[in-house]
Design a protein that fits this description.
The protein is an alpha+beta fold. The protein has 13 helices and 14 strands. The strands form three sheets. Strands 2, 3, 4, 5, 6 and 9 form a six-stranded antiparallel β-sheet that branches. The relative contact order is 0.15. The structure holds calcium ion.
Length: 407
């Protein structure tokens, strides 16, 4: 088994003037970093993160991915402090080091690593995002999470905390596996089913695969920067066995996981303690907009039913009208704080839900220059707690941070 072909492509997309994503394609190291911040800061942050990884690769082995990611975090913070224009910048990072038959993964934020094995696509990394946490705790369905106004709110990033928590884990590779690292500019535009079918269709040429993935994200609107890095595990002797060169550098011992974590891998059904600690049980409003039909009346004969149908129907219509009126009244008064797809904090009128058919029960009423990534984790959890407020309360909560963060 050895590392086979790889390909990478990064594109600014249709809406952004700049590309703030960075990536590494230096086999056996691959990484994607999605930078955020004003002006050039996002580019600086993602570039600092991948440079720290590349330097670790060139000074290794052994390569400690987590130490390299933490070093990137340290440099971003240092730069933020030294340069007011870069204050508050941040970046995600998802890095993979391939060593023998094992992938070591280091991960912070909502960029993703996927594996295509056979015809099955699996997301290997958990999203460190508010909506992913709400899905994990059962407060949102995966369908509601797509297109949610708070989906760009990440709960962990490099650059925001001195002691960034880095997820680290290993997965065993198999011959034929195709791996994809990507920024959320792909995954917010292209669903998993389409990513899977593109990879299946183009797996014979990874260059074609990354081009097709970026094209699909742009065809869907290209609202964000799009970065895709792909590589494949193939049969055959490793280059070391073939040429007598040094084997691939081993991953540092600190990458090893407890056995049960390595066995289950990461998935939404099995959150770790670390993930659970950052979910401060956001309060969620009860759904009050009725969508369910009334329950069936008790079993009666067909003849009886005809006589009793009318009162049931009238009763139901009255209840429906009352519920709709109450729901509309609540929607018009309720406000919550969220963030748009650019990560800008805003105030939304309504409730943070969607009905089937992508009917949003909210609309933005105010967009702030504050970026969600500029807020610390406790601040984010407090601000986006899904509690419903009056417009005034929601606006003043946002303005506290504007006075502090926007110069
Ligand atoms: Ca992005």
């Amino acid at each position: 088994m050895r590392l086979g072909p790889s390909a990478a492509l990064s594109d600014a997309g249709h809406r952004r003037r700049r590309n703030e994503d960075s990536f590494v394609r230096e086999p056996p190291l691959f990484a994607v970093a999605d930078g955020m911040g004003g002006a050039l800061a996002g580019e600086i942050a993602s570039r600092l993160a991948v440079t720290a990884l590349e330097e670790a690769l060139h000074s290794g082995p052994p390569i400690d991915l987590v130490a390299a990611i933490r070093e990137g975090n340290r440099r971003i913070q240092e730069r933020s402090l030294a340069d007011p224009a870069a204050a508050g910048m941040g970046t995600t990072v998802t890095a993979v080091l391939v060593s023998e038959g094992t992938l070591s993964i280091g991960h912070v934020g909502d960029s993703r690593a996927y594996r295509l094995r056979g015809d099955r696509l699996e997301q290997l990394t958990p999203d460190h995002s508010l909506v992913a946490e709400l899905v994990r705790t059962g407060q949102l369905t995966p369908e509601e999470a797509e297109g949610h106004p708070q989906r760009a709110v990440i709960t962990r990033a490099l650059g925001t905390d001195a002691n960034v928590e880095v997820d680290r884990f290993e997965v065993a590779a198999e011959v034929g596996d195709v791996y994809l690292l990507c920024s959320d500019g792909l995954t917010t535009m292209v669903g998993d089913a389409d990513v899977r079918s593109i990879l299946l269709r183009k797996r014979t040429s990874l260059e074609a695969a990354v081009r097709a993935l970026v094209a699909a994200a742009n065809a869907a609107g290209g609202e964000d920067n799009i970065t895709c890095v792909c590589f494949e595990i193939v049969a055959g002797p490793s280059p070391a066995e073939e040429t007598g060169e040094l084997p691939l550098p081993p991953a540092a011992a600190t990458m090893l996981l407890p056995a049960e974590q390595a066995a289950t891998g990461w998935n939404d059904a099995a959150p770790t303690d670390a993930e659970q600690t950052i979910v401060a049980a956001p309060t969620t409003p009860a759904r009050t907009v009725p969508t369910a039909p009334p329950t069936e009346p008790p079993l009666v004969t067909r003849r009886h039913r005809r006589h009793r149908k009318l009162p049931y129907l009238v009763g139901f219509l009255v209840l429906l009208a009352v519920a709709v009126a109450a729901g509309l009244a609540m929607l018009s008064r309720a406000h919550f704080v969220g963030a748009d797809s650019h990560g800008r904090v805003g105030v939304y009128q309504g409730v943070p839900w969607e009905l089937p058919g992508r009917i949003h029960l909210y609309r933005p009423v105010y967009v702030s220059p504050v970026l969600a990534v500029q807020l610390s984790q406790p601040e984010r959890l407090r601000l986006f707690d899904h509690g419903l407020h009056s417009k005034q309360l929601a606006l003043s909560a946002v303005r506290v941070f504007e006075r502090e963060l926007v110069r």
